[in-house]
Protein 1
Amino acid sequence: MRVQQITILGATGSIGMNTLDVIARHPERFQVYALTANRQWERLFEQCRQFNPRYAVLLEAVAAEQLQQRLQHAGLRTEVLQGMAALEQVSRAPEVAMVMAAIVGAAGLQPALAAAQAGKRVLLANKEALVMSGHIFMRAVQDHGATLLPIDSEHNAVFQALPRDGNGDLRAMGVRRILLTASGGPFRTVPLAALEHVTPDQACAHPNWVMGRKISVDSASMMNKGLEVIEAHWLFNASADQIQVVIHPQSVIHSMVEYVDGSVLAQLGNPDMRTPIAYALGFPERIDSGVAALDLFQIARLDFEAPDARRFPCIALAYAALRSGGTAPAVLNAANEVAVAAFLEHRLPFQRIAAVIEHTLAAIPSGAADTLEQVLAVDNQARQVAREHIERSQALC
Ligand code: NAD
Ligand code: MG
């Protein structure tokens, strides 16, 4: 078996660490080419010590200097690079077979796109990249012969439940609908009035998954599911009407595909991201992920309910952005990132997140999203509009 070299974008995050956990179980299959992070150089140093990559990349210059000194001191040969261009460089390097795209938010778009343009196997966790620039991203995958494998547990489940040789035409595959499951997050049953006062720590205390703070807040508002509806649209060529959100509090069924004959195929497993990560790393083979076997007797029951539109207004905003098309999903994503950051910094109440997004979507007419320049320009504009809206409402308080 040939050892495959892999770059992990966002190695110090929740997905990055789970990826390294799976990779460590298969030293005969995978070798780490590059590990990257924003500024968490200490954790990156520990990872370099364990995995001995050729490159370690930090976005921040000061952190890069500190890592460099520490590596030198420890006698390690990993070379330190810095900045966005370096992230792209380690994504498209000829030695690299696979790129795990696990940077959070819009910041991950360009390095993930670079991997697609270099024809790599792209393991996509960074859903924001696809939400912002689905058309550009999917075209790059197709034009450059890249392989796109979804890491998001729902999309990984759908991918597993679809015929492998399907050509992207859901109708021809006999698919009626994609059923995206959602846990409903920590606020599913909290009285609506109490949502006004929820804190970032409460929002990040997810009942079933341990994740980074941004996606945890997205799960609490269910914007995560909204982003995933748009992600599913691009990955599976599904229209908004072909994607249904189903609340399933146990997070055991990771999603389902409903066929015209009435069959519904589901993928089940413990809620542990190492399963979709191992699936994508080994594809088409199945490899050990370290995840415990599912104990159905212990789970005993599986529940389902429809999402409550009043409690979770972000879902409808995402569907509306998907239906508008063009730059609307990029606007939705940017406004959400700004609102979530403000909430995490105690500058915005949880329940105002949806209002900021709604305001931003209404303020910016949807335009063409055919080039990266167009997408980045609207991303910038939406951030500005959202920030101003938050500042104005703060001034009123
Ligand atoms: P996280 O916050 O734990 O980690 C983010 C990683 O990105 C870190 O390594 C960080 O250093 C890096 N990073 C952050 N900002 C950066 C920037 N500006 N430039 C370069 N690097 C930067 O996030 P996470 O929970 O691992 O999520 C990563 C992505 O995967 C997100 O898009 C999320 O939606 C998606 N995802 C996560 C999970 C999960 O279980 N955590 C599940 C499904 C999808
Ligand atoms: Mg998900």
Note: The first strand starts at residue 4 and ends at 9.
Protein 2
Amino acid sequence: MSNYHIKHLEEYYQVYRKSVRNPEAFWEEIAEEHFVWRKRWDNVLSWDFKKPEIKWFEGAKLNITENCLDRHLPTRGDKTAIIFEPNDPKEEALHITYRELHERVCRMANVLLGHGVKKGDRVCIYLPMIPELSVALLACARIGAIHSVVFAGFSSHALATRINDSDCKIVITSDGSFRGSKSIDLKGIVDKALEGCPGVANVLVAKRTNAKIDMLKGRDKWLQPLLDEAYADCVAEIMDAEDPLFILYTSGSTGTPKGMVHTTAGYMVYSAYTFKNVFQYTENDVYWCTADIGWITGHSYIVYGPLANGATTLMFEGVPSYPDYGRFWDVVEKHKVNQFYTAPTAIRALAKENLDYVEKHDLSSLKVLGSVGEPINEEAWHWYNNNVGKKNSPIVDTWWQTETGGIMITPIPYVTPTTPTYATLPFIGIQPALMDENGQEIKGNQVDGRLCIKFPWPSISRTIWGNHDRYRDTYFSAYENMYFTGDGALRDAVGYYRITGRVDDVIIVSGHNLGTAPIEDSINEHPAVAESAIVGFPHDVKGNALYGYVILKETGESRDRENLRKEINQQITEHVGPIAKLDKIQFVSGLPKTRSGKIMRRILRKIASNDTSNLGDTSTLLNPEVVQEIMDNAL
Ligand code: WTA
């Protein structure tokens, strides 16, 4: 019997047991029955978390786009694959069928081939949420090129760092992007980035805003005329199961962003299987994930997971507040959305607005509500459940990461009874463990610890691009034979998991992962700044906001503080992007440091959160006197 679609709680437990007792047999059956392969695998799984080396479906040959497109053509050729809902509701939505999408992907693939892009080459995609974005991902996959999507809210500096880290030879972008009432000069950002990227030979530019932009002769080309001329079919490159499919950068505790590498077969199987079950997708449903494709949520649950299931997936270009705070609900009503997947920060922002924005829309099509990216607090959970789901649509609080490729801990709607703020049970095949500080697993229930995973799942990332040592050190060295997530979690009396947040220096602001290092680096580049440290503090909409402690150089001391604050945030906007701006900036004379010179962020975090009754052990501090000063002047 197929275990592809789980419909009852007993079935979940039964399939879960099967998946952990004999993972190879389990995943082999799923892979065999639900995907098309050019050649079968020789071996389902080989792994060693020490090296670390993980291989799924080794020896198999396939192309993921044949699974996402070609195989649907006979039965679903005229079905809508992508609904494109533009930023401006007055502009007409597009319905792109599977046949049309196949053709668009083939044309784009041929354009890439025509520009010398070959299997294994890296292609940087820096596009707004327009159909060309999904098409570009799939076009790369069609020819075996590795896509590296950079979220189009990142600055030119952040873009250049990512382009150079993975040696992209071509960039796909647009003249600009629309976000609510604003339009953004994306091409200008790309031009600035490329001043520092000598390896980029071509820039393909999609037209969206019709803004006047500079086109560099020989390097920059308008995409549409090339697509119009290109041949509408393109033979798929046959890939090995473990060939890289894409690189996606995520923030680390320290240092530069990490280019997480996902490979082809395992990623396909797991993103598709989780999509089917976590959203209980059935034929003719309309599914909408509000994430940007610049993040992993968009890769797995706007593009690959839905398309591998022949689903209709909605791409939304705009923002929840434009033209008013009812936009999400307007889109749900207009397209009769059945599954809606968003982030807690969006829910909290909308919950602040008048309830009329929700109530004037017919949301009766909704069957499943999803949440992702950060812990969902109880108030937001109830607001979502009461006002959007009308207590009729289960909420799936899905915990996962860029590194995991797919959803790891989650309820299955209509199957798993939900509890607010709990991601509940491990998904099929996932073996979580809670670890203590001495490296021991904490067994039993009603415990909390550091969240690890004991056994590989098909879509675990395989390495960090160009830095396998960092991959091992970050994820596999904290606990022997375990993948360490960087999150803390508790397991309650019935075995449900609740994610309590990061235990490292990654800060999640409005659902976006931000590492402290690149932000501090950009602050320190300001001529008046000597040193800085940033920490997160609780914020009622963003979840966390950033608090910066800044030491000025002597030359900066006489400067106007408000102006300095503005300049520092401007500096961050240019180096990282507006998402990393600081909410509070406190000028200090020193930072609390240990004798080995490490900043004690724990103390700074407590001061930023206004929680100074117990600062914990401060005996290893080199300079305890600055703590009092910082507390006295806290913002
Ligand atoms: C956090 C996003 C609590 C967590 C898919 C994780 C969550 C990080 C949840 C990964 C959730 C994600 N509950 N925390 N449901 N989902 N997180 O790589 O800290 O952008 O480690 O992947 O977001 O963020 P990333």
Note: The first helix runs from residue 9 to 21.
